[in-house]
Structures are given as C-alpha cells and as structure tokens.
Amino acid sequence: MVVANPNPVHGAEPDSGTVLELGFGFAQGEKVWGYVVSEDFRLTHDLMLAVPAKMVVGGLEDCLKPAKTRRPALRGAGDSAHHHSIA
After folding, report:
1. Which terminus of the chain faces fewer neighbouring Cβ atoms within 10 Å, N or C?
2. Considering the entire predicted model, what is its pTM?
3. Would you say residue 80 has pLDDT above 50?
C-alpha cells in the first residue's frame, strides 16, 4: 500500500517524487491512497492522481483509518460512505 501527501509543496503542483511513488505503486498493483487539505484538489492538480488513488480530505490519520480497513479495487473504486473521498 502507498499512502502519500500530494499537496503542493513549492508552487501549484505536487512534488514530482511523490507523484512518481504513487504511479509506481499503482503500476505494481498496490492500493494507492492520498490525503489532501482541500476538496479543490481535483481543480488544481492533474486528475491522473485523483483517479487511480483514493484521495481523502484531511491529514495522514484521516487517510490511514479507511486505508487500513478498506480493500478497494484499483483505480479508486470503493464505497465513499466510510470516508470522505473526493475521487
């Protein structure tokens, strides 16, 4: 499982290393999760992150709770009733 913080670090885009790690994890068949501070993530960032990864609004702990208990299919499918997802 890959859990990452794709919030912008310097400028308007996520860190390229973080994006690489998310993509590599997805390519390896890992569950991929991200946490963002705002639901505006999809408006300011490449949707290529928000589709394969489950994005949770909040911090690391907010992301780890559903990531530990859920086993969603790849590509972001899953029941959003257990967590606040924007994907």
Report:
1. N
2. 0.66
3. no
Q: Are 22 and 51 in contact (CB under 8 A)?
A: no
User: Is 57 a domain residue?
Assistant: yes
Which tokens is 64 given? 């780890």
Terminal CA-to-CA distance of the chain, rounded, Å? 17
| Amino acid residing at 57 | V
Tokens of 66: 């559903």
Q: Please check whether residue 53 is in contact with residue 22, taking contact to mean a CB–CB distance below 8 angstroms.
A: yes
Tokens of 21: 């790690």
Q: What residue type is 80 in one-letter code?
A: S
**pLDDT class of 46 with cuts at 50, 70, 90:** low
Q: How many domains does the chain have?
A: 1
Mean pLDDT, all residues of the chain? 75
Does residue 9 sit within a domain?
yes
